[in-house]
Amino acid sequence: MFGAWRHRRGCQRGSQASIPPTEPRPETCRFLADVPPGTCCRIRRYRGRGPVRQRLLDLGFVPSATVCVIRKATLGDPIELLVADTFVTLRKDEAAQIEVDPQ
Amino acid sequence: MNASDKLSGGARRERRLPPFYLEQARKRALEHRMVVGLAGQQNAGKSTVFNMLTGANQFVANYPGVTVDKKSGVYREDGLKVEIVDLPGTYSLTSFSLEERVSRDFLLFEAPDAVVNVVDAAQLRRSLYLTFQILEMGFPVVIALNMMDVAEGRGLKLNLERLSHSLGVDVVPTIGRRGQGREALRDRLREVRRRSGPAAGLMIQYDRLEPFIERVRARLEGIPALVSRYPIRWLAVKLLEGDGEAEKLLVRTAGEGAGLLAEVRGWRKEFEAAEGLNASEAIGLSRDRLAAEIVALCVTDTSMGRTPWSERIDRVVLNRVAAPFFLLAAIYLVYELSIVQGNELTRLTWPVLVFLRAGIASLLPSPGLLFDPYTRLLGLWVVDSASALLNYIPIFFILFTLIAVLEESGYMARIAFILDRVFHGFGLHGQSTLPFILSGVMAGGCAVPGVMATRAIPDRRSRLGTILTAPFMNCQAKLPLYILLINIFFADHRSWALLFIATVTILLALLVARLLTSTVLRTMETAPFVMELPAYHAPTLGGVFSRARERTWVYTKKVATIVAAAAVLIFALLQLPGLGSERKAWYEQELAGPRAGFESAVRGTVHEALAEERSLAALVNVFSAYEEARGGADGPAGIQAVDEKFKARFPGFYPLLVPGSDAKAAEIHAALKALADRQRELRLRIREETLTHSLLGRFGRTLESGTRFAGFDWKMNVALLSAFTARENSVATLGVLYQEGADESKSLEERMRSESRARGITSLHALAVILFFALYPPCLATIIVIRSETQSWRWTFFSVLFPLVLGLTVSSLVFSLGRALSLDGLKMMGLFYVSVLFLALLLGRRGERQPEPPEERLANLSAQSA
């Protein structure tokens, strides 16, 4: 089931934007932005700081929580997610900062 | 052994409240007063619980200095006055968003006697995060477990006793929308007040962060200024979390704060390095674990994985292909019901305003034959200005009702979801959709409700961007000028021209938004698009109407009063300095002939007294009104009705109004008609001359040298200037300025057409005017609302000056370019459209790159240097 998105380019895109140069680039990272609708995964961590991270934590995006991608908006962005019992929307830019593991 | 002992993530503890809180409570107890904060997450149904508790006794104010509504309500019981303060809906109590700061500051600085925490029973796990934080601050808490019906509908069974036991506080099941649970809730509050002594409740434990919290707490305990004022454990957690406001608080209150702060930061680094986990993540994780534990203990899920029906609706409504169609249908419905049907409704309410005007007119000094007293002119001007805006009230009421329905049902959040991509490309937000629609995307909105609706936008930058661009939409009052110009200059291509105006305004607004958000608004606070899609709810009648009523009232109060005041200023500009006595005498002389004719006709008859100055003016005016009414009546039945009416209302004048049977009566009638015709003509000329020589008229002429490049002549300048208070004025002013041919009862359109042709005014001129009018500064009513929504005079001035400069630039460019290429208005219209569309597609295609937050940049820098 995860075969399809394993080959996507998402990993590089997310990492270029946010990883400080000193940090070694992880080999197996996946980002929430690249998970196709109808798929669930587990949150590893959020790479940004500040208000977005806090809001995500408040809505239940805590490390190791399960998150499912429900659908994309008509223009492909933002995306709708299900975390715990809550339906939440997120822009792709923000979802590209969330590292996830396959469930 | 009770249930809460089993919780690994929390402990029941008694807390010492800071002396400041106790003192506040004591003070209020003496006054037989109790203050209760109503806290809850967004979409938990907090406002329904608020309405249920307080009934109709509600007051809305602003929290000092910010645009967050502070709603409070009062109920009395056994001589006790209970004041409920509705805090903004927040997921948490950090200091990242304005709403959260406001809520937290209220709790910290006003120290309520109790907090009612509204919890969504269907989302217990996430809702508990906030509950833990309130408990941590030490307040006595009563939980209103709301939306029990929704939870049951989802197959969730809640064990309230266990929940109450786990949390160590009272839990009251409520269904706010049906008013269930009010007495129980009030009962619990009474209980809380009676119960003296320290509050009890579950205190969350933070796992491996605990030793660090203990360290910070021990240090804080040594600072009396803090101990007397704030809950210390809470402050310790916040400091470790790196909360900006808590840090400021520490530095401000305690002399040794700065040193301690550095120490705390060191400890935080130590924790993060040891655990490989951010402190706020660790805190979030502990909260989630404890919440999960409580949910496991108290909730039985019998849904067996059934999809919630809200999601089943969304599978259709938010379907990628179908979503835009549902959205269009919803928008169309709002438009049809409010603008179209609302307009029908104003036809019924307009006579009320006419009646009021007539009432006020009868109180003012009576009109003269040629010149009316200034008090009368001014009084009527103010009444007319106010009623032009009051006329919109039915439309607004319907609009606000529908918006409330959209909000309460949960569809509003979905609109934002569908369209966010479009708006985000231009630096705006999905929630900008509604303000634009209200302001008149489909010709005929109003920027006042539009700007008011921007409150829903959580992102400060997008919000201001929307406020500044929504007035470019085609509000109802702009339409008459557009239609006039189109009919004169683009008569063969009416629908194209209308389509051009309707769509080019959206494109211009988006482009301007992009320009503003990437320049002057660049440094403004933005919020992520992290938004909950709430489950669909059937809106309640009471909730919807109270919201609609409240917003309509705000509009009426603010706009009607201030516009009336400002109307006086415009009146002065339009009237002063007025005609000199020489010109007045000249006009009197012009009327002297017909007047003498009438006097000689009535001499010796019973009507002789009517020729005196005062009654003559009244007679002539009644005569004109009668002629007009007769002209407008349809069929003999209509004419008869008019006759009856005038006979009843003016029995003294009536015999003169009709031609009469004998020769003498016919002579008098003819003389009166000649006098009335001449008077009407002279009055029109007086109005024109007054306006031409008025301050505004002179100003219009002065501006001509500048506006020449945009092709505006002084008449257009005056019309545009007069539109500043209300756009409707533009056409009315043109009506006064284009007088030639008015006698032959030509319409304004015909008069303007023939005169324009004679003076070489082309469709290119008209295009320049249309574009300028599209980018015209907001009208006075909107400016007032912008001021109250932005809480800033600077942005209010900007909202006026910027469109002025932009509009002049755009129309000058279009006009000069059209001249240089010798293109006519229609071709230039096409060229302009194509270039604007191209620009919009180019810029909107790529979302704007988020600038790195400064905090992040610092972290990166330090990481590099390490």
Topology overview:
The complex is a heterodimer of chains A (103) and B (866).
Chain A: H1 3-6, H2 10-18, E1 30-31, E2 40-46, H3 51-58, E3 66-72, E4 79-83, E5 86-90, H4 92-95, E6 98-102
Antiparallel strand pairs in A: 1-6, 2-3, 2-6, 3-4, 4-5
Chain B: E1 10-12, H1 19-30, E2 33-40, H2 46-54, E3 58-62, E4 69-77, E5 80-86, H3 98-110, E6 114-120, H4 124-137, E7 141-146, H5 148-153, E8 156-158, H6 160-167, E9 170-173, H7 182-194, E10 202-204, H8 210-221, H9 224-227, H10 232-241, H11 244-253, H12 257-275, H13 279-298, E11 299-301, H14 309-317, H15 323-363, H16 374-390, H17 393-409, H18 411-424, H19 433-440, H20 447-452, H21 460-469, H22 479-489, H23 494-517, E12 531-532, H24 541-575, H25 581-602, H26 613-632, H27 635-649, H28 654-657, H29 663-693, H30 695-707, H31 714-722, H32 729-737, H33 748-758, H34 763-774, H35 780-790, H36 793-820, H37 825-845, H38 854-865
Parallel strand pairs in B: 2-5, 2-6, 6-7, 7-9
Antiparallel strand pairs in B: 1-10, 3-4, 4-5, 8-11
Helix pairs in contact in B: 4-13, 6-13, 8-10, 15-16, 15-17, 16-24, 17-24, 21-23, 22-23, 22-33, 23-37, 24-35, 25-29, 26-27, 26-29, 30-31, 31-32, 34-36, 34-37, 35-36
Question: What features would you highlight for this structure?
Answer:
A: about 100 residues; alpha+beta; SH3 type barrels; six-stranded antiparallel β-sheet; 6 strands; about 25% helix; globular; disordered N terminus; B: about 850 residues; alpha/beta; Rossmann fold; Helix Hairpins; seven-stranded mixed β-sheet; two-stranded antiparallel sheet; about 65% helix; about 5% strand; elongated; disordered C terminus
Question: Care to describe what's here?
Answer:
Chain A has 103 residues and is α+β, with helices and mostly antiparallel strands. Chain A has a single domain (3-102), classed as Ferrous iron transport protein A (FeoA) (SH3 type barrels, Roll). Chain A is built from 4 helices and 6 strands; from the N terminus they run ααββαβββαβ. Chain A has helices spanning 3-6, 10-18, 51-58, 92-95, and strands spanning 30-31, 40-46, 66-72, 79-83, 86-90, 98-102. The radius of gyration of chain A is 13 Å and the shape is globular. Mean pLDDT of chain A is 76; it is low at 1-27. Chain B has 866 residues and is α/β, with parallel strands linked by helices. Among the domains of chain B are: 3-204, Rossmann fold, CATH 3.40.50; 207-275, Helix Hairpins, CATH 1.10.287.1770; 581-690, no CATH class. Helix content of chain B is 65%, strand content 7%. Chain B has a 7-stranded mixed beta sheet, sandwiched between helices. Chain B has a two-stranded antiparallel sheet with strand order 1-10. In chain B, strand 4 and strand 5 form a beta hairpin. The longest helix of chain B is centred in the middle third of the chain and has 41 residues, at 323-363. Chain B is elongated and about 110 Å long. Residues 848-866 of chain B have low confidence and may be disordered. The chains are: A alpha+beta (103), B alpha/beta (866). At the A-B interface, helix 3, strand 3 and strand 5 of A face helix 4, helix 13, helix 14, helix 18 and strand 12 of B.
